[in-house]
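Supplementary notes for students who missed Thursday's class. We covered one full example, reproduced here. Read the sequence, then the structure, then the short commentary at the end.
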Amino acid sequence: MKIKCITLDDEPLALKMISAFVKQTPFLELVANFDNAIDALNYFQTRKVDLLFLDIQMADLTGMELARILSEENSKNKPFIIFTTAYSEFALEGYRVNAVDYLLKPYDYKDFLTAATKVRHRLEVQSDWEENLPTENPSFIFVKVDAQIIRVEIADILYIEGYKDYVKIHLSTGASPLLSLMSLKMLEEKLSVSGFLRIHRSYIISFARVDALLKNSVRIGKKNIPIGSTYKKVYDQFVDYWVK
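Structure (token representation):
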């Protein structure tokens, strides 16, 4: 399977050269090229890309600023980044945004291929790891809380509240809710096969923890959780879950 790539450089000759390098590399596929970071950022909003070859010094939005935006997004489809620039002083800053490599202009195809191969190896390791994940419903998930990665037993989750940039996981253990910097959408995907249901734009609940289904809400313990206006099929889903 080929690695889907984007090239981004505001210098026409540099963009032409690196695009040509991508095209002549058997394991790479050039899906788009751009001469400004704004257009590239818009492209990323709707499409999955594996690898971005990114110039740093550009008008409006620099390559480094674009890399920071992409690294901060709550998405599992963040691209690997290889910087291309004529300025060596950016190397350290590039690694701070998790760039895989740094190509200092002028570079040749050998340098390019060495950097691209690093990404290829990382993707192969990532693919092997994903293939070895258990296919049965997991009994736990890992979430990042402050500087820690914490294991959370799925059976202990009562419900989850979503805020703009983070989620609050409420547990049956009596422990304080866990705050994690991630989107509710990401957590919904993690729990999609584990008996959880999103009933509101700000809430995911555990079927097994519901004590009562009311007209416009569900009750878990002493907490009444609203059912959103766009989630009116929740009642039917509860009936299907409880009756089967």
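Commentary. The chain has a mean pLDDT of 83. The CA atoms of residues 32 and 43 lie 9 Å apart. If anything here is unclear, bring it to office hours.
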